User: What shape does this take?
Amino acid sequence: MNDNRIIELYFERSEDAIAETDRKYGGCCRSTAYSILGNREDSEECTNDTYLKIWNNIPPNRPARLGAFIMRIVRNLAIDMYRKRERLKSGGGYGSVSYDEIVECLPSSESAESAADRQAVLTAVEDFLRKLPKDKRVMFVRRYYFCGTYAEIAADMHTTEDGVRMSLKRTREKLRGYLEKEGVEI
Amino acid sequence: MRREDVFMDILGGLDESLVAEAMPAFPEGEPGTLSAVPEADSAAPTKKALRMYIIARALGAAAAIALIAGAVLLIWQNWDKIAARAPDIPDTAGYAEGLPDISEACGKLIKFSSADVRLTKLYYDGEMLSAVFTILDTGAIPEGGNYEIPYPVLWINVEGADNISPSCVTEPVMEADSFDYITTSSARLSLEPGRTYTVNVEFNRYGVRESDPQKYSFTCPDISASDEKNDSYIRGDGPANAEELAEKLLKGMRWGLSSEAVQHTASEYWGRTAPRIVDTENDYDVIVYDDMELYGEKAAVKAELSLIVTDGTGLSSLDYQFRFDVSNEGAMKADELYEYIRAEFTRVLGEPDQPGMDQWDADGGDLSFNVYKADNWNVEVKLYDTSA
Assistant: This one.
């Protein structure tokens, strides 16, 4: 079923909306949640919470990209759940994404203190990503948004794990340079 | 909050277009990675799942009753109009004989209640059928429309094709300072090369869905057919194709110094600003970029492409500045040396060929240069030092 039809089902308050959402995006939701949480039951709970949140948001919202809309919800819920569950110590990382890996392009606490600062960093990151070749950009988002493992990304992008690792390393270095150029303190 | 939390939170706000582009693909109905994860001991539903189910059932039942009642009332009130309109509903079966052909789709204008829509491009790459539309807002809101949801969605329906699941990317035309949009709609389809299909366009805006009553024919191109002499991208039909042309071309560039110095292999397209000057002289398109950068694998080489010239038959030449850093070898530092090079494309070959390197002598080192595409394209080039 196409996304527009699924959205219409939400507008009609039909429970088929959830079933169709699960049929189309359930795999992606569970996998994304699992990449972050590393636990089957929590991933299922996170996916259910995601559906409830979608149900409460559509209507009034009518997302232009339903898939991305759902992925944003599932990712952010999984991250919240992970933080509550783990009561993380500094340097913990997320799922398969290690702290060491992202530390080189982390903005300092001072440079991301306020919402406006964070929005500025986000805008810079988005600008940077849009200038990347598509395959590099997809790789970066798959790793740091969806928390995909090197193996998963390599399989999907028809390359090797080492290839993914090296490419991401170069992209992080460039991101760091770009953020510094944009005045973000690293 | 930890620093890594800040980073993850910032990324959480990433634009949906970037997220959509990178979404992992799973066949519908597949459970995803969890299929490879052992089942938990207890398969009992969670409290939240139950709560969601109860809410969904309650809301669903209420909505269904309301919908049925509303529909019955509407039909009863409008029966005369419905009966009168019934004969106008077109037959959707059959193929495209006699319909307007949009295989070369350009500029077809379709009028909907709140916008005029121009179909500017339609293409099939073997998997995806994509259509590019320009939506020109007329300022009207259709009857029953919700003005709070002006975002338009457009897609093409192909009769006789399976698995239509279109995705729509809609971008406002910012400079127009209006509600005009450019939309790209794509659907994963299995189409048969050479076969003619019947298509029509649907539009959804302000919560009102409309279908263009006019149907069109679309003949699926045979994308496997190759042209031995030319390639669509290398032909470059002027400024509109320049970015795509440059990106694909530059990704395939290889160049290197002599064996004593650093060997640079894969280059990487790094972005650009918009063309600074776009000019057409006689039969040539001259496209000038301010800032197109390439970086070598070791960040030791950088080239700035400044000029692309295409003529009616193909890419004619590239001008670029070339800068290399062999500071690791103790010879030169980055930014010290610029060489100006013009590469003239003397012949475009459609068959695989090992790179026959034209040589260009630079400061005692042989700078070699050739251009080819990963899938066995090869271009003979002639290089000139244009520094003087």
